[in-house]
Amino acid sequence: MKAEQLAASQLRRMRGMTALYHRLFFSDVRFTIVALLAVFAAGSAGVEPMFLAAAPIALLGGAQTAFDASYLIFARHYAVRLEARLNKSAGEDVLIAGKLEDSYLFPLGERKLVAVATGPGFSWFGYMTILYTVLGISAFVAGIAASAAQAFDVIGSQWAAVYLGVLGLLTATTMAVGWWWFPGGEGERRLTKILDDSFGE
Predict the structure, then answer these.
(1) Is the dihedral of CA 50, 51, 52, 58 positive or negative?
(2) What is the separation of C-alpha 8 from the centre of its chain, rounded to a whole number of angstroms?
(3) 8 Å CB contact between 136 and 175
(4) For the chain, which residues make up each domain, given as ranges?
């Protein structure tokens, strides 16, 4: 099989990955929303300990959707390089999906908070990411507040301290690693190094 055919095959695979992880992102968002609504409904109906599940669900939902975005970023980086190779072989820019995504969704290789770029790179995609993040943080805070108001009395102060300690540790760790990987640029640096070496840039 010729190199161009292999590159085209890999490009189809990466485009399939971008579609898959877009679907998974919204599937995870929907699941998190439904789970949170069910938790708050049960807690409000008199099963107060259910409020304890709200903050962990919100945290896990945020981490999982960022994980989905990390695969989306991975697939886009590789697809852009494959498009460039195939365009060079064709002698003209036939494949421009990567350029469109950079302008319309969010840019690659720039400092951003997962999929939220600032300045000219800001987009509706970025706004929706912010919206989901703000709603997730609100659910997290509301879960803690509802637990403090009702559920902590049920489980006792000792278990409440354990709950808050573990939740605090998980939240701090998730935020620290997420900052290192996304705004800190570690994830995209790793991709760029290998792609530069492989594509001779």
Answers:
(1) positive
(2) 27
(3) no
(4) 3-199
Secondary structure E strands in the chain: 112-113, 116-117
CA-nearest of 57, 67, 53 to 25 is 67
d(CA 64, CA 129): 13
Tokens representing 26 are 């919204």
What residues contact residue 5 under an 8 Å CB cut-off, 6+ apart?
A: none
Q: What is the pTM of this model?
A: 0.91
Helices 54-90 and 186-199, interaxial angle, to 10°? 20
Q: What is the pLDDT along the chain (201 residues), one digit of tens a residue?
A: 588 899 999 999 999 999 999 999 999 999 999 999 999 999 999 999 999 999 999 999 999 999 999 999 999 999 999 999 999 999 999 999 999 999 999 999 988 989 999 999 999 999 999 999 999 999 999 999 999 998 888 888 899 999 999 999 999 999 999 999 999 999 999 999 999 999 876
